């Protein structure tokens, strides 16, 4: 009797130990991988823009592959071999279009040296369109009698995936060229929001936020918001001091390297702000020295905390709709690459739109390029119009007549 | 119908006994979670068969009462064709504003037709948010596209009004915010048992927007380039349709593609040559008029669209010398042509060889979802989409063609960008331009 009871006790202890161990083991693996990913992030930043572009492209391809694989599983379309080929072909086409447009803009000097590249740049849109059309015609020709609907579904699935994944990655690269800080800060803010919301939810979480993600809580949401504000503010302060992060990335055709040397723009120059009177009475400080970029980071943090989670809810809804637990099993403990990047989608687009609307104007070298393509008469008329305007503003001395 | 039903059921045992790489896969094949499996296999059958209500107006019915039923259909179809072509001419006569309105109306109708098909396929009538969200996304995307275009072309008008200035300067941000609001509404509207359905409709809406709204926007941009770039591509596609039909009717023997059994190789090739000739003649006829040839501009004094300009080189008659081989055959040494006619040959070639793929795509789509026509808007022809399915690729091709081979950047747009730059940047560009113009001899060299 006692031996059996001892065995039961021992087995119960072993069970408890194993369950605790496996939960801790899961938590441990997750933690180690998180640290590994964050370290990898820092290392890639150190290695510079080219590595960053390559990493972004790799992530994009992996995300695309994960979503397309889900489509195959949903629609049992393994037996249509054309579809893999066509999906990858469309990915290459769309990437060629986007990266061609970007590279032509930023590698202007290099392009003008090579004649073959000149041809590709001048007729870039036409070539991209032709490549896409070839894929479209191949799709139409590959329609098989009993599988019409399946093929149309996969076609639409591929296109929506391209729309989401490739556009985002392209916008991330464009943000990168604006200055590495516009790449690092948004991504860090989203990661920080994830971690902060998790911590606040772990310690204080009580009220569920949304049925889609039962683990999220209002306490985590709001606590994450404030935590992210603070972290973003500090991070912006730390990074805005270095030219390496702040300057637009340019391609130096002599050294064949990317460089970031410039006169930092106004938003990265420390300025004195005066508090409104109400705040002055509370804080007993009259002024504070801030980088204007820190105020921009507050806007980015607000977006990441309030709207960014909707990207996560969208991905959760998607996983529930198709009854998958994770997008893939690429990262142990975390799921697939898409699982890590689902909140980043909206952030990249928002950052790009924000920059385009509030930060920068047109790119001067791009405007000059456009000017040089015009007809001589048009160039002359624009030249005259410019000269008159510059004289009116007093930038040019008035004409001596 | 039965094949799809069998496929729906046949997949289930595969997924149960097959690979277990994802636990979700078993559930996918079986009940599919929240009863979606049944919906999936039933979705093979159209819920509502195409309406059998005869849409033809009464007067047409009376006119064809006495005829043979087959001739009756052909007659109605012919009358409606003529009506549509006359409508096309009338709208051209009424000018650019009417054309823009007509394009927008057609776009909205196409969107509505495709979304209705999606509702029928997915039985999603009982999700009332979806209609609202689909129309909201349509308005957002239209606002984005038309805002960009109008800001470009109505530059003078915009600079007068301050409120418009604000809308133009932050246009992308405002459009993005509007879209985001719709996105968040979608996420908040996800209902527990209908996740997959809602995601399908979301994707359906977006793909439809991608196809329909982008095309209509490109059509309007082509229009602003010059009415001829609007009229000739559309006419070429219509002409190709008619020519291929006639050649197929008289000479058709070899089927072209399984998707469209009525199309034949004779119709395809005959249509190609017929379209070449028609396009050539049409280009010749239209290239002589300023009304068609000049870029459409908004005249802020008269508040009207005008098309007055010095016609560009491609609309000026030029002498071309035939190569010797052709000279021996034709005994003509030179010929007077508008260069635009050569461009029209390229457009005709595209419309005849690649344009039909748009039609095959639409045919495959209709077969996939087992509908006979997109809708019943036009008696004898089907829906608006049925008439415009070959036009999709044409509008995009024309736009890409113009952007690559015909025009350069828009000078006024470049000037606008210049004026937004910082003064130092303006000065540096000014100096760079001055040096280049001097190098080319357009400006007199500086007196130093």
State the main characteristics:
homodimer, 401 residues, mainly alpha, two-stranded antiparallel ribbon, 17 helices, transmembrane helix (chain B), phospholipid metabolism (chain B)
Give the gist of this structure.
The first copy, chain A, is mainly alpha-helical and 401 residues long.
Q: How would you describe what is shown here?
A:
Two copies of one chain form a homodimer. The first copy, chain A, has helices at residues 2-47, 49-75, 82-106, 108-113, 115-122, 124-141, 148-178, 181-204, 218-239, 243-246, 277-283, 292-306, 308-321, 337-341, 344-359, 364-373, 376-393; strands at 208-210, 213-217, 250-252, 257-259, 271-274, 287-290. Chain A is mainly alpha-helical. Chain A is flat. At the A-B interface, helix 6, helix 7, helix 13, helix 15 and helix 16 of A face helix 1, helix 2, helix 10, helix 11 and helix 17 of B.
Q: Total number of helical segments of chain A?
A: 17
Hey, which two chains have the biggest interface? A-B, 75 and 84 residues
CA distance, first residue to last residue of chain A: 119 Å
Q: Give the overall form of chain A.
A: flat
Largest sheet of chain A: 2 strands, antiparallel
- Give the percentage of residues in beta strands of chain A: 5-15%
Q: Report the radius of gyration of chain A as a whole number of Å.
A: 27 Å
Low-confidence stretches of chain A: none
Helix content of chain A: over 70%
Tell me the structural class of chain A. mainly alpha
Mean pLDDT of chain A: 81
Order of helices and strands of chain A: HHHHHHHHEEHHEEEHEHHHHHH
Strand order of the largest sheet of chain A: 1-2
* Assembly state (oligomeric): homodimer
DSSP strand tally of chain A: 6
Subcellular location (chain A): Membrane
EC number (chain A): 2.7.7.41
Pathway (chain A): Phospholipid metabolism; CDP-diacylglycerol biosynthesis; CDP-diacylglycerol from sn-glycerol 3-phosphate: step 3/3; Lipid metabolism
Keywords (chain A): Lipid biosynthesis, Lipid metabolism, Membrane, Nucleotidyltransferase, Phospholipid biosynthesis, Phospholipid metabolism, Transferase, Transmembrane, Transmembrane helix
């Amino acid at each position: 009797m006692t031996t059996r009871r001892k065995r039961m006790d021992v087995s119960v202890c072993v069970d408890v130990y194993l369950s605790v161990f496996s939960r801790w083991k899961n938590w441990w693996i997750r933690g180690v991988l998180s640290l590994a990913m964050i370290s990898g992030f820092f290392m890639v930043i150190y290695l510079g823009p080219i590595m960053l572009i390559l990493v972004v492209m790799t992530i994009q391809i992996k995300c695309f592959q994960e979503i397309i694989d889900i489509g195959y599983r949903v629609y049992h379309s393994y037996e249509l071999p054309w579809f893999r080929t066509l999906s990858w072909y469309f990915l290459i086409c769309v990437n060629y279009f986007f990266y061609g447009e970007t590279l032509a803009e930023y590698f202007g000097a290099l392009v003008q040296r090579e004649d073959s590249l000149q041809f590709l740049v001048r007729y870039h849109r036409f070539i991209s369109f032709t490549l896409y059309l070839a894929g479209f015609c191949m799709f139409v020709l590959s329609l098989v009698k009993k599988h019409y609907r399946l093929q149309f579904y996969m076609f639409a699935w591929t296109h929506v995936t391209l729309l989401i994944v490739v556009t985002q990655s392209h916008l991330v690269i464009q943000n990168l060229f604006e200055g590495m800080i516009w790449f690092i800060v948004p991504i860090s803010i989203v990661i920080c929001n994830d971690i902060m919301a998790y911590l606040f939810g772990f310690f204080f979480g009580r009220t569920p936020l949304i049925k889609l993600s039962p683990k999220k809580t209002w306490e985590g949401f709001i606590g994450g918001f404030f935590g992210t504000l603070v972290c973003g503010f500090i991070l912006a302060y730390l990074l805005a001091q270095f030219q390496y992060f702040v300057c637009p990335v340019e391609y130096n055709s002599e050294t064949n390297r990317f460089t970031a040397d410039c006169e930092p723009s106004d938003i990265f120059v420390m300025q004195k702000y005066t508090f409104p009177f109400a705040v002055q009475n509370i804080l007993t400080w009259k002024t504070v020295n801030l980088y204007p970029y820190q105020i921009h980071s507050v806007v980015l943090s607000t977006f990441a905390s309030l709207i960014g989670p909707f990207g996560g809810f969208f991905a959760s809804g998607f996983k529930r709709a198709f009854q998958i637990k994770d997008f893939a099993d690429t990262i142990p403990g975390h799921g697939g690459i898409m699982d890590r990047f689902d909140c980043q989608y909206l952030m990249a687009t928002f950052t790009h739109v924000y920059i385009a609307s509030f930060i920068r104007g047109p790119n001067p070298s791009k405007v000059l390029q456009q000017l040089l393509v015009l007809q001589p008469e048009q160039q002359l008329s624009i030249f005259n119009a410019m000269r008159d305007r510059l004289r009116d503003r007093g930038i040019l001395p008035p004409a001596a007549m």
